Amino acid sequence: MNQLAKDYWEQFWGEEEHPALVSAWMFGEAVDELAQAVIDGRKTATCSALKLYELENEPVPVIDEYSIILNSLEEPVAIIKTVDVSVIPMNEVTEEFALAEGDGSYRNWKEIHERYFKRELGKVGLEFTEDVLLVCERFELVDVKLQV
């Protein structure tokens, strides 16, 4: 986590006792657009391939975990809190979840995510399949620092 994100986290909580568990990250594509969608309330969910978490030795999100969303300049723009996490095959993701990702329609969500996972899994020598396991995370917006 960069210093700007650390400072934002500390300023947000002030003198209050606060959770130690926090991460800072940016969305994989359309970084600023998706960060703004979170701020606007159009995006309340996100997902990634379980295999990518495993290969990057990254922990899977957990309920009540906080994240600082970064823009493309790696500046903190918002804080979110994870409220639900499930691991689901991509071909079983519900339309309701897909719409919560803010991509407009289930069809758009599917096209965007197929393209993204084909590319990202291909980079590590893995083949995309329709039943690739996704870590599906729902979150709530806690604070907004800046508009993107």
UniProtKB/TrEMBL annotation:
Domain ASCH: 25-143
InterPro entries xref list: ASCH_domain, DUF984, PUA-like_sf
Taxonomic superkingdom: Bacteria
Descriptive protein name: RNA-binding protein
Source organism of the structure: Sporosarcina luteola
